[in-house]
Amino acid sequence: MTDPDSPTRASSDDTRQQGRLRQQSEAAAPDDLRRRLAALLEGVRDERGGEVDDSVPQLAETAPDLLGLAVTLPDGSVTAVGDAGHAFSIQSAVKPFLFALALADTGGAAIDAVGIEPTGEAFDAIKLEGGTGRPPNPMVNAGALLTAALVDGGDADGRAERILRGLTAFAGRELDVDDDVAGSEMLLGDRNHALAHLMRSEGTLHVEADDAVSAYARACAVLVDAEALAVMGATLALGGRNPLTGEQVVSAAIARDVVSVMATCGVYDGSGRWMRSVGVPAKSSVSGALVLSAPGRMGAASYSPRLDALGTSVRGAALMERLSRELGLHAFDAERR
């Protein structure tokens, strides 16, 4: 038994107390937090690497120099700097939330319908698990097509409406769909159509291929900004409870499962490097967004459209690494405990 008065015990208690004080100071000093976030933003502003995604015309037309950052704390406060209020289509950042909704609507059965292992492949690779015909994980396109098809709704329109309601609950405010983006995703998403037909042929997908692509296309076209996305990330980080509205959007167990898969698969083939350098579960997006869920701590989101070869925002990744260091968010940093 450890002596309660031992130096080791005292040191451990001091460290935990320092961590609690740091979290309290973050919540208690929004002006200081805003200054710190603004400084982080300026630290990456001169980075010019990467290219804007051009998979649909609406993304190709995005102003490349947009840059925003938002953080949501457990008390519901949202601190935002730069272009954090600029609206964009959520694109791939929708995938953790589709997984969460599919788990909720199937009573957890969706966990067996899709794998949870990283692939080492591109996010739109025409590839399923050997022997099962399942998508490898819910963070790649095949997995997101399947999870979008598993949410409640009698047809593609019903599922799209359920997804929009669910995302609205995660964000704590009314969200809309950009119909032009959804149309482009449906028309130009040849690989998504191919994946849907492949899953149909394997008996994995139980709705029509076009219906699956349609529901997923509308999910990707939901309009958010970094502020809304930070709240969504915080909802997952805080056990499925939205810190703005108090609504229990999904169960704590579902939130835990989703955040776990974000940690291993959320940045595709760069997920291992991401967890080493940033140490916070995250999901990237071809729109230029990044959403983070730091369990029990906060949600954060950045927006900067230029992407690297893996489809991750160049400035966003640099920004989030600095944010993790600044606020002591790295999950495996012993000094933060």
Describe the protein's architecture and organization:
The chain has 337 residues and is of the alpha+beta class. Helices cover 49% and strands 11% of the residues. It has a single domain, classed as Beta-lactamase (3-Layer(aba) Sandwich). It contains 14 helices and ten strands. Strands 3-2-9-8-7 form a five-stranded antiparallel β-sheet. Strand 2 and strand 3 form a beta hairpin. It is globular, with a radius of gyration of 20 Å. The chain starts with 6 loop residues before the first helix and ends in a 10-residue tail after the last helix. Mean pLDDT is 91; it is low at 1-12 and 14-28.
Helix-strand blueprint:
Layout: H1 7-28, H2 30-44, E1 51-52, H3 57-60, E2 68-72, E3 78-82, E4 88-89, H4 95-105, H5 110-113, H6 141-150, H7 156-171, E5 176-177, H8 179-188, H9 190-202, H10 209-220, E6 222-224, H11 226-237, H12 252-265, H13 271-277, E7 282-284, E8 289-294, E9 298-303, E10 306-307, H14 314-327
Antiparallel strand pairs: 1-10, 2-3, 2-9, 4-6, 5-6, 7-8, 8-9
Number of helices: 14
According to CATH, the homologous superfamily is DD-peptidase/beta-lactamase superfamily
Radius of gyration (CA) equals: 20 Å
CATH architecture: 3-Layer(aba) Sandwich
Which percent band covers the strand fraction? 5-15%
| Helicity, as a percent range | 40-55%
Query: How many structurally independent domains?
Result: 1
Separation of termini? 21 Å
Number of distinct beta strands: 10
CATH level 3 topology? Beta-lactamase
- Please identify the structural class as seen in this structure: alpha+beta
Series of H and E elements: HHEHEEEHHHHEHHHEHHHEEEEH
Mean pLDDT: 91
Quaternary organisation of the protein chains: single chain
Tell me about the largest β-sheet.
Answer: 5 strands, antiparallel
Strand order of the largest sheet: 3-2-9-8-7
User: Could you list the spans in which at least 5 consecutive residues all have pLDDT below 50?
Assistant: 1-12, 14-28
CATH class assignment: Alpha Beta
